[in-house]
Structures
1.
Amino acid sequence: MSSFSMAERRLYLCIGLRPDLEDTVRAAVAGGVDVVQLREKVAEAAPIMRAAERLKEICARAGVPFFVNDRVDLAYAVGADGVHLGQGDIPPATAREMLGDDVLIGRSTHAPQELLAALSEPVDYLSAGPVEATPTKPGRQGTGLDYLRFATARSTLPVFVTGGVTPDRVALLVDAGASHFVVVRYVADAPDPEKAARALRTAIDREIRVP
């Protein structure tokens, strides 16, 4: 079993390959990000693996779980803390057989039937969304707040909301049941990622009354 509990994590950064990747992740973690995922949809395996090895070290020093998106093979190769699987990836049961019980597995869901199916899979947390359409999910319509309400009410696992997570929307998302948040552009594209992460984490902690 993993030493990390996803129920205790609040702010999850997804980020792709970029020249300032390591500096951005360090800054985001310093600002309050407590989960990091390398999400790269275009590059070949070798550069993803090299970046994953570096991010794993950064996250390990900070006590932050590090995930690889989609690629179970690369998650295994670098000793990632977890892998996040979309609906089109290999089944979580297969990933669990390959990775064992000490690696965390996340599962994306976008509709009620996907969420209900995921609850019977060997996963540790779910994501729900994107609540709003986002360039990071091209071609996918926003799920809206009703799906977030459904997911957080029905799930027995932590549910991380995706899409449009900014400080001024945190209260709205919390009202719909959210207590775990995924951020991409608001932090990754900010001129000062640490400041952006801190603003978002402050809003989250205030709304969900984290001591």
Note: Strands lie at 11-15, 35-38, 66-69, 82-85, 104-109, 125-128, 159-161, 180-183.
2.
Amino acid sequence: MLGKLIKHEWKSTYKPGCLMLGAVALITFFGWLAFQTPMWQKMSSGGSFEWLDLFGIFTLIMYVVMLVVVNYGILIYVGVHFYRTMYTDEGYLLHTLPVTKHEILFSKVLVGSLWMLFVVVSIWFSVFLLGLSMVSAVLPDQYSLIEFWGEFQYEMWDVLRLMGVEEDALFLLTLLISLLTPFVSVTTLFGAISIGQLSSKYRVLMAIVAYVGILVGESLISSVIRSILTFSRISGMGNYLSRTANFDFLMKLMVAVGLYFISWHVINNKLNMN
């Protein structure tokens, strides 16, 4: 039955999700157009400012704005969808199905997190492509993009080695955090929405207050952790950064796990859709 729940959840969310992926592709195309203006070639060879350069600047500004909108837009959509299908009239049929509350909650967390992951990956890929476009636009004719990329990788890893960061450990840690962060974000949001349902009225407002409060609390704890690590005499900037990142993510992961069970408790014992 869990598979059917996941399939149904996927069908009910794929259109907005695909729309946002299409939006990322579209704004990436316009970002690429911005780097085709003469302004970027003139950065390496010199030249006067032209009216077409305004198009390039405006397009890049809109590119950044739209990426931010899409990034937060998918999170807002997932949260609104969760609220509507769990705590409003739309959720009556769902809660009458012969499935456990864990299966219902898990299916929503899984599908929502996957859409978050897809959008985040598409955004990073878009930024990577735009970075290559910018570099190719300003590189001298005798300097190839492949040569630049080789030198960039060498210099980047050289800096990391000087900071005391192990390449393999950094790659695995970054990959793990990148894969789990969407699940942490979605579970945290669902937990805040569920906490808001404990209020007798103004539940949406209370959910927003709970979400902001959770984020502020996490930020304060992260600041305390950084302060402790700052005075713990950790050798090397790389070790300091890796430890703070690890503790920060571990704290958020523990909060998300706790909020998952809070959501389950509310759905299982405190459900009130009046």
Note: The chain has a mean pLDDT of 80.
3.
Amino acid sequence: METQKIQAYGDELYAALRECRMVDPLTEREPDISIEDAYAISSHILSRRLADGERLIGKKIGVTSAAVQNMLGVNQPDFGYLTDRMVVEEGGVLNISKLMIQPRAEGEIAFVLKKDLQGPGITATDVLQATDFIVPCFEIVDSRIRDWKIGIEDTVADNASCGYFTLGQMAVDPRSIDLSTCGMVVELNGQVISTGAGAAALGSSPVSCVVWLANTLGRLGTSLKAGEVILSGSLVPLQPIKPGDCMAVSIGGIGRTSVRFD
């Protein structure tokens, strides 16, 4: 795809983000759009956000579990960028009625790095050694693509359907627990709505997702940086949310976090 067209689609999605409005799927308008084109569009959106004063603080991995892949009709993981304006304090309130379009929430495990990870060739051992701690996390995703009618290229271009996220406060050494078997329980308004386990992440563990991201970025000539927050992907189905809802996630051996929506 020509650079001019990549920038035009990036500007369109950036405007949709700021104005909380939907756009038609890029895959309908550009049937030949590639994954590489989509990541170039996402990168252009990031440049617009940074120019607007936001600060890059990490990355997210999306579409890692079979439950989410089946829900969205997307059969491979993707990644997007996290900025400081996407953080919601633990137990805080997110005004989705003003800030989001068609939000959904998912429970995850977040990794906070103490060392850089430069792929390719990164292994699970490398990820564990580079991780400072892990915490429970909610990611509140959103799509600027109309009615969530997304192909993999649509969600990649739209910064992996990023929205906001909240992190728990209990920091845990990832080497102290089995991240493949740790269980997750998600509650909506006090009722359990879904459960999952670490093995739901790429059929293995959340560590495998970070391995995938580090090696994918390495092939693109970039790396994960010390201090970055890495959201490793959902272990449970996405949950549509509305104003007035409250959600909590508990993860065995890691802790609990919650978020409310207005």
Note: The mean pLDDT is 93.
4.
Amino acid sequence: MAADGTIFGAMLEEFSGAARILNLEPGIWKILTNPKRQIIVACPVQMDDGRIEVFTGYRVQYNITLGPGKGGIRYHPDVSLDEVRALAAWMTWKCAVAHIPFGGAKGGIICDPTKMSRRELEALTRRYVAEIIDAIGPEKDVPAPDVNTNAQVMAWIMDTYSMHVGHTTTSVVTGKPIELGGSLGRREATGRGVMISTRESAKHLGLDITKARVAIQGFGNVGSISAQLIGELGAKIVAVSDWKGGVFNEKGLDVPALMAYAETHDHSVDGFPGGEPLTNEQLFKLDVDVLIPAALENQITAKNASSIRAKIVVEGANGPTTPDAHMQLHQRGVFVVPDILANSGGVTASYFEWVQDRYGYFWNEQEVNDRLEAKMHEAFNAVLQTALKYKIDMRTAAYVVAIDRVATVTKMRGMYA
């Protein structure tokens, strides 16, 4: 959160530091700190018991200078316009860092999906799409899954949009089922990007990844795939924690066994017999080479940053480190790979899905992974070289790269009046 208490204000603080380094022109500064379009819609739905509920939905297209808007849709009771606006801005910078031809967008509906039936969720999804349909499309704005949405929700969005335009349009969303034009490798892409960021960070610092000790907070899709792929590089995954508990093994955890255990134990590693119990607080204090926060935002704060002993922090989650904590880590020489770089593998694979849908030809999983490797390597090097050039941390460097790309194209395109 920023000093003004808003999430968007926090984004503006990060933006300002990088913009000053670039000596960004005042006019361009104003353009890049104002969302292009903010849509608020009312979505009436007839519930299973016959009553009518009206849900509020949002879609913010922050900046579409580089291409169509790109960003997820979340279903949550705490969704707000401030949150969606900030997330749309962060998607703008993430797509620019990844060097893919998308702008930034985000959507959300204020609802509690845990208290809704499948039919109610489908009805809500379809009504929401009908309300924003003029603003989305393969060349306008391409939604994706986010908190409490999934491949099934994307299938409903794709079908609703297709019914309105009169033909099947798979490229209107990404994160779809494979059978409906989804991409192989998409599920693993964010974790694969985290692995590539970890490997390249170790290479830059002269750390032998095969001897590295790694701790991971969060064992959902991102955390578990990161653990698996980093383990395959030869690194030792010594600790993992999640929403329920954690586990530590000095000699290294058996990651495939841990994944199988979590699958059958409420999606948690709590109680895994291959190590000792561990709390989140203890995990952050471990003497490890790499720490990967891959759970929730604001996990590394001014209170616990001083106890972190890792040489490298790779942000698998969105916003896991507060600005104060990041400053502490940077001053202590900890190499932090920011979320808009480290977890950009997901949106990069979404771009691949969109390309394949529009092309009408699909790549095998190895081709997807090879292309992701190339894009992540390019993005990491661009940010690293910028950090070295300006003698700044990787987070600020990522913003410098992103803002410079969007600002350059904004100036090239000129002002339409």
Note: The domain at 187-342 is CATH 3.40.50.720 (Rossmann fold).
